[in-house]
């Protein structure tokens, strides 16, 4: 195989990229202080000393709320490009499209409400 200047330049750029990525990693391994004990093994809680066990079990409702928030938050984010795309157009068709999308979101909220997802239990076990 014959190497041209382009092949050499590509290999040099690849080598420089690996060097730029590897140099900080190698430097941190070689130059980082080696300390152990003390407060290094404690969980971080905003500068305050923690109390209780760090390995507590959260109820599943926390995760349900997080997933519901993500689902509806991502769906609402679709309204921003729609507003930009339909900003120069006036008409009933665009209003109907956005209304169908919002109705689908509303039906999702009603479905989850009827299933009791939004009710917080008195005690999480």
Automatic annotation (TrEMBL):
Broad class of enzyme this protein falls into: translocase
Membrane-crossing residue ranges in chain numbering: 61-80, 92-113
CC per GO annotation: NADH dehydrogenase complex; plasma membrane
Subcellular location per the Swiss-Prot or TrEMBL entry: Cell membrane; Membrane
Key words of the record: Membrane, NAD, Quinone, Transmembrane, Transmembrane helix, Transport, Ubiquinone
Function: NDH-1 shuttles electrons from NADH, via FMN and iron-sulfur (Fe-S) centers, to quinones in the respiratory chain.
Gene3D superfamilies registered for this protein in UniProt: NADH:ubiquinone/plastoquinone oxidoreductase, chain 3
Pfam families: Oxidored_q4
Phylogenetic classification of the source organism: Bacteria, Pseudomonadati, Thermodesulfobacteriota, Desulfovibrionia, Desulfovibrionales
Protein family according to the UniProt entry: Belongs to the complex I subunit 3 family.
Gene source species: Megalodesulfovibrio gigas (strain ATCC 19364 / DSM 1382 / NCIMB 9332 / VKM B-1759) (Desulfovibrio gigas)
Record field: catalytic activity: a quinone + NADH + 5 H(+)(in) = a quinol + NAD(+) + 4 H(+)(out)
Annotated EC: 7.1.1.-
Protein name: NADH-quinone oxidoreductase subunit
Membrane topology: Multi-pass membrane protein
Coiled-coil parts of chain: none
GO MF annotations in UniProt: NADH dehydrogenase (ubiquinone) activity; quinone binding
């Amino acid at each position: 195989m014959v190497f041209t200047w382009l092949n050499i330049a590509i290999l040099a750029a690849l080598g420089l990229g690996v060097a730029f990525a590897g140099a900080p990693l190698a430097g941190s391994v070689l130059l980082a202080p080696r300390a152990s004990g003390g407060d290094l093994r404690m969980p971080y809680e905003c500068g305050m000393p923690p109390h209780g066990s760090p390995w507590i079990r959260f109820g599943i409702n926390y995760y349900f709320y997080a997933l519901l928030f993500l689902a509806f938050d991502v769906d609402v984010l679709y309204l921003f490009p729609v507003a930009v795309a339909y900003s120069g157009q006036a008409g009933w068709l665009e209003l109907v499209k956005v209304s169908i999308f919002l109705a689908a979101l509303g039906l999702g909220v009603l479905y989850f409400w009827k299933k009791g997802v939004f009710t917080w239990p008195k005690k999480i076990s």
